[in-house]
Structure formats: structure tokens, C-alpha cells
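[SOLVED] Need 3D model of a three-part complex

Original post:
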Amino acid sequence: MTSPAVELRGVQKSFGNTSVIRDVNLTVVKGERHALIGPNGAGKSTLFNLISGYMIPTVGSILLKDEVVSGLPPYQINRRGLSRSFQVSNVFANMSVWENIRCALLWATGHRYAFWKNIDSLPEVRERTAQILQDIDLVSRRDLPAGLLAYAEQRTLEIGITIAGGADVILLDEPTAGMSRAETERAVALIRRLTESCTLLIVEHDMSVVFGLADRISVLVYGQIIASGTPEEIRGNPQVKEAYLGQEAG
Amino acid sequence: MLNGVLYGMLLFLMASGLTVIFSMLGVLNFAHASFYMLGAFFGFQISRWFGFWPALVLAPLLAGLIGAAIERYGLRHVHKNGHVAELLFTFGLAFAIEEVVEIIWGKSPVDYRVPPLLNFPAFTIFSINYPAFKIFMLLVSVAIFLALLIALKMTRVGLIVQAALTHPQMVGHLGHNVDRIFMMVFGVGTALAAVAGVIAGPALQTQSNMAELLGPILFVVVVVGGLGSLPGAFVASLLIGLVQTFAVSMNGSLASIFGPLGPGNTQPFLADIWNVTIAQIAPIMPYLLMVVILLFRPTGLFGTRES
Amino acid sequence: MSDLSKGAAAPRSVSSNKLRCYGSWIATAIALLALPSIFSSAGSLTTFSLIGISIIFSLSYNILLGQTGMLSFGHAVYYGLGGFLAIHGMNLIAGSKLPVPLPLVPLIGGVAGLFFAATLGWVPTRRSGTAFAMISLGVAELVASSSLILRSFFGGEAGISANRTKLMRVFDWNFGPQIQIYYLVAFWTLIAGIAMYALTRTPLGRMCNAVRDNPERVQFVGYDPHVIRFLAFCFAGFFAGIAGALAAINFEIANAAYLGAAQSGVVLFATYIGGVRFFIGPIIGAILVTYLSLALSDLTAVWQLYFGLFFIAVVMFAPGGITGLLMKHRPLVRAGTLVSVLRAYLLALVPTLTIIAGLILAIEIVVRHTVNAGQDPYTKAFGVHFNAASPLIWLLAVALIIGGFVVARRTWQWVGKAWDEGLKAAREKGFHA
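Solution:
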């Protein structure tokens, strides 16, 4: 059995008296594309916040590649190879698209807090940034401040920043939210291409994206996983239909 | 002891307005202590023309109106430029107000007297005189504190303000006329600071550097109590009021306790620290307290919100 | 929604950027060398020296404010401590006849600033925004108040003085005459400026900008924002210490005023008025504020009030400062539509100046009545004589303000329209910023 990339064991999260995540057990296998679906307010973003270190579980533990990471700050978890995107575009608005990507890969390329090197004369940084810019197809927007991008372009940049550092576990939070059909299809093709050799955990509401992209799907309802399995298993699961999918026509 | 509590209550009168303004509008009003000063000077001037009692009512009113106008025509305009711009606006305002006060009333302290009605010692305990005016100050502070408490807990506006203390954005979404509430809150907050000034003026010195001296302590109170927390502001005000007043009256120093063990005169730097009395470091005690609190509890005593 | 279909205009090539960069520094060096030949009076040289010190100080402050998004109300602490340690250093060197020439003394100040920034800065830099600003104020007050207690180090109210001519000579210079001090300051201004500019081109410098824009996201790309802020704080303290040391050398004294809230306020004014978004902003702000504070004090008794009002006006109407305002015109310049906007400015100039004249008149009248009440009402401000007691002068002030405002409003509308048209034309040609 291949090792799990991400594992959640008995994770619970409460804010005061409100229980948002109640006893979640989840295993994301290395290299698989795992989708997390569920109604609004189920706690999907909270789960992402817990995995990426933005929040600490009240009970339970989270493991990344067999190492316990619950309780570590986000930057420590990121350095261990996990990167996430945000539901609301969280870019560096005053910096150009080029600089956004560049900042996202500075740590991974080993430059850390260097204040003695001229950043313009680091060839590997330049090349890698150019490569990613090309991969996400925003070369024409290179010097535009990120805050001025069109919505879909910002979402694309968001994905670009997430994968730029070369993390092998990628968390995407509703990457296609608010996109048109055409934009969504482009985004899905992009995601598939960019996360070729990575483990992907993706939250989505667009079912066509989910069923087209995912190897396995987990359904989160009221802070609990009510079902987890292949797309066919999920589609046929009566509990899932009742809670979320509704009675589909075929 | 009375002085300590009094000082603490005065601080709270100001800190409460500051905290509510910060929670609702998201801006830490750097000029808050300036309204305290305006209250004192308006109080002085009006009591020169009409007497102390009209001044007690008119001065805070005037200051509050000025505060509301500043919010309406100045702060609101700056709001869209971000938090830093708002803070800088109030910073510039504090500077300008001090300059104007200096121009109109000069640099030396003005002769703001205790009203003759209250100018007598109320009672004597352990041979320490407790002047009636200070009792009056305490009574006014407590009365306002209670009125504030009632207003917050029992009126509709009070409920909105309470909600805004923890969820400022939601208040707007709920359909209240946020603009008008903001203006009112800013006006009332600054009026509160002015009241503190009107009653503190005769007891402490009324001088154009009042805001400069009290401003930083006010911010220490708010940081120690926790940004955005009213109970925190209350506890911190009393704490700092008592600490500072007690310290001033204490003449002990390391030298007086440990005497000959000291470094003597060979090391002048260490000798300074050895010989300094607690009374001398009284002015910096609030800042020391702030540093200690920040080291061990970075969000302040009761703080729940980051900036 | 703006039409971005044409994309941004083609970026300039890397090599032409480098040429511009090196070229401007060389030009600056030449200008600094040539300046004393044009303005050779001792007063001008002192002014230039003060401006140079202010430039270093403001640039160091902008490492915090403009580049990392940290608003500090207590930056003068590191300026002051740098100054004090420089003075003590000078006394020590002169007393023990150590072979350390004066030009190296600013480094002592820099190291002092760095040391104290590192010690005092670790805890506050955990927070950001308003909390950090308040803590910086508290720390500054703490140090400033301590300066009256630790008399042997800070010299109490009088401060500590030193004699800068007592150190080792450099090429027969003993740094007594102001011209030699000017060259010392100019040298350090150039070096510090180049160093601080270079810092912005490093990985750390770029991540500082990222922390300014979005400290939350920075964590998710592997960086600890606390460490970045701390490093920025240390650098800012280092260069502030250099500035403080130069000031101590220039005045041959260091006192509690160096550390105080007033000094922190001045650097904040200068940096913000100049503009925090561009490297050259604080330089312009420093030059303007230093020069104005020296020149204005002769023209009017309440120049500090004008300063405060000017600052408030900048915060309200031009939050990007002077350079921000100028840079906004960049797309217009590139698209060639600047001329029509300039014409609108010219039209708006007269009524706007009228309002300002009226306000100044009103302020000066009030000053005359209050500050110098009982004295001769005939007075002078900004070189213009007037009788402060006459009701006519009151009427004039009011008329200028109201009349100017009425006309100005119309002309400002024209300015707005010219801007809209100019910007639209620029965007169509692909120039956005």
C-alpha cells in the first residue's frame, strides 16, 4: 500500500461551543487526486485551514508524509512540501504578476532571507519564474500589478503561486469558483497539467470538475465525512444523494 | 490610594472612548488625548466666562461636536486610503491641535481653578486630606461609567456598538445607518475624553503639553488591556493608575534596600540604576508593564482581536 | 472594467534599466561633489549636511514603512542611540588616542543602531499594523524617559558633547570646517543610499514587499513574516544609527531630543510627504521638510502649524506623497496626453492659491491676536505687511477663502475631466502605470 501523503486522525475543531469539524478521519494517498465536496458550511475551508497550519485542531492529529504537522505554523508545513490556494484570491496585489510568482518560489530555491544577493542576477530564479508564467499562460500580463488582473486571471495566478514552490502536496480551495464554462475548462486542463506528479486535494462545488478530475472523492457534511470512495461509489451512495447531490438524472 | 483610583478612572474615561472608536471604526485615534486637552482648555475658557458648571456641560459638547465634524469631513475621506492613512491622519491631527492650543493659550499652564463650591477638604483619614473636588471627580467618573454601561447594555444603539466591538463588518450588513453611527460614536468618544479633561484640568495642570504627556500612557492602557476590549481597558486603566500613583510615593531604591552592596561610584552607569528611586522611574512604569505583558501575553490581558 | 485586451505595453530591456541605474548614481555622486562650488556659504553647507543626514534617516525609516508596511512611532530611538554611542566613541577615541579616524565613527552609530534594534525589536515585530505602531511608541517613550534616569550615559538634560577635531587626521583634514563635514555627510549619504537601494533588489527586500502586501500569504509560501519584519527592523536601525552618528558629529553633541517623539514625528512626516511607494520618495521628502523647516521659520511664527496642516492635507488628498502624485502622471507622459491635464492644472492654480492665501491670512490674523495680543497690530507674515486689527483684513481673508472656493470647485471639475480623458487615452495605448 502506497504511503499516505496526508492523513487526518480523529480531527476535531471547535470555536468556543461551536463544533465545526467533528471527528474527521481522512487519508489521501500519495499521487492521487482527491476531491472534497459537501454543502456550504460543512467545514471544507476549515479543514484546509487545519491541514495547512492556519488553525490548530482541538483534538486529533494531522500527518504529512508520515510526520505529525498539527500544531506547526503554516510556513513550517509549507517547507515540508504542502502548498494551498485560497477561495478568495490571496495574491500580492501591489506587485507585478512576475514578482508574485518569483516570491512564491524564493524559499524553495534556497534563497531564504538572503540580503547579499542581487535577485535579478539569479538565473535559476529567473528561469523557473518564466517557466511557471508560461505554464499558467500569463506571460502577456507579466508586468501588470496583480491587483489589476481580471478575475479568472487572478484565480489562475493564485494557482500559479500555489504550485510555484514545487510542493508535492497541493491543496486547491474552489479554484474555479466564479468562472465561466470556458474558463473552467481551461483551468481544469491547467490543474491537471501542473499537478501531474503531485498529490492533489481539491475542494469544489462544480460537479463536472469533480467527477472529471478526481480519483477519489470524500463528502463532508456538518463537519463529518459521510462517505469516501471512487466517483462511481459516491455517485451511487444514497446518503450522499440525500445530503448533497440530490436525485440526479442518471 | 484615592489618587490612584481617580487617575485610573480618568484613564478609563478616555480609554473607553478610544476602545469603542477603535472597535467600530477600526482606527486607533491618535488624537484622542488631544480631545482630553481640548476639554480642559474649553473648560478653562468657558468657566472664565460663565463659570465651572456650565463649562462642565458645554466643553465636552463642543469637543464632541468638533470630533463628529472631524469624523464626517476628514476621517471618512481618509478611510478609503487604508488603516495606515487613518492612523497618520489622526497623528497629524494631534499635532495640529497641539499647535493651535499653543497658539491660542500659550505654552505655560493656565490658571484653571477648582470651583469655589468644591474647594474644601471633604474628609480626613489618617491625617491625609481628601479634597472635595477629587471626590467630585470620582463621582462624575463613576456616574459616567455607569451611564455608559447602561447605554451599552440596554439601549438599541448600545447593542449595535457592542456588536461592532467584535463584528464591525456585520453591523454594516445588518442595514443600520453605519455612517451616522460612526459619526455619533466618534463624537461621543471624544466628548468622553473631553469630560475627563474638564474635570481633571483644575486638579492636574492644564497646559499645552497635556496630550503629549498622557497620550502614550493611554495607548499603553489600550495595548495592555487588549485592543478592542472594554473590560480590558477598565482593568488596565486602574492597574496603571494605581501602579503609577503608588510608585511616585515610594522613595525606595535598590540602594536603600541593599545599601553597601552596590557598585559604588566606580561604575557610573550601574550607579545610576542602583541609586534611582522608584519615584523617579514612576513615569516609565506603565511602559515597563507594557513590555512585560507583551512578552508573556502578546494580545494583552483581555485581547481577542489582532490589529 | 478596464479593457486589458491589449495587454501591458512592452517592458524595457534589462540592460537599459541597469544603465539608468548606474548612471543615476554616478550623476548623483558628481552632483554632490559639485554642490559646494555653487553654494559655498557656511549656512548652505550646514543645510546640505542636515539634508544629507535627514535623507539617510528617512530612507532607513522607509525600509519599515514603505517596504515592509510597518508603521513605527519610535524610530528616533535608534537614531538617538547611534548618536550617543558615536559621541561616547569619539570621546573614547580622542581620550585614548586610538587610530580611528572620524569617517569611521558613523559605523559605530550604525552598529549601535543595529544592536539595539535587534534587542528591542524581536518582540514588537511579532505584531503588525496598529499594534506594532503602539508598541513602538511605548518602547520609544520607555527609552526616552530612561534617558533622564541614566544620567551618566545620556548626560541628563544637557546631553553629552565631544570635539570632532580631536580624532586622527585624514589627509590633513581635522573635520573642523563645515565643508569637510559636508563631504563626510555626502559620502555617507551616497554609500548608505546605494546600500539601501541594493537591499530592495535582494530576496529579502522582495519578501519585505510581500509581507507588506499580504503577510498571511507569505506564510503559505514558506516564509515566517516575523523573521522578515525583524530583519527589516534591524537594517532600519542600522542606517538610522548612521544618521544619528552623523548628526552627533555635525552638532558635536547628543541629547535626549535625538531620541524623542518629536524626532520620530519629523522623520515620519518627511518620509510620508515624500512618498513611501518609491525609493526616491523619502529622499525628496527629506530635502523638502529639512529645507522648509529652516526657511519657513523666518517667514512666520507658526510654521509648525503649517507643517501639520500640510501633512494632514497630504494624508487626505495625496496618500502616495509627492512622488506618488508625480508618478501617477506616468501613463499620461508615456501616452503623450500630459499637456491637456497640465492646462487644466494651470486654470485651477489661481483659485486654489487664492483659497490658500485666504487661509494663511486668517491664521496669521488669529496668531497676531492671540500670541502677541496687546502688541502693535501692524505685522508681517510671508513678507507681506498687514494690520491685524482692521475689520477690512478679516473681510479680505473671508472673501479670499469663499470666493476662491467657489471658483476653484469649477476648475477642479475640469481637472477631473482632463484626467479621465487623458487616462482613457493612455489605457487604450496600453499604459497602465
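Edit: The CA atoms of residues 95 and 309 of chain C lie 47 Å apart.
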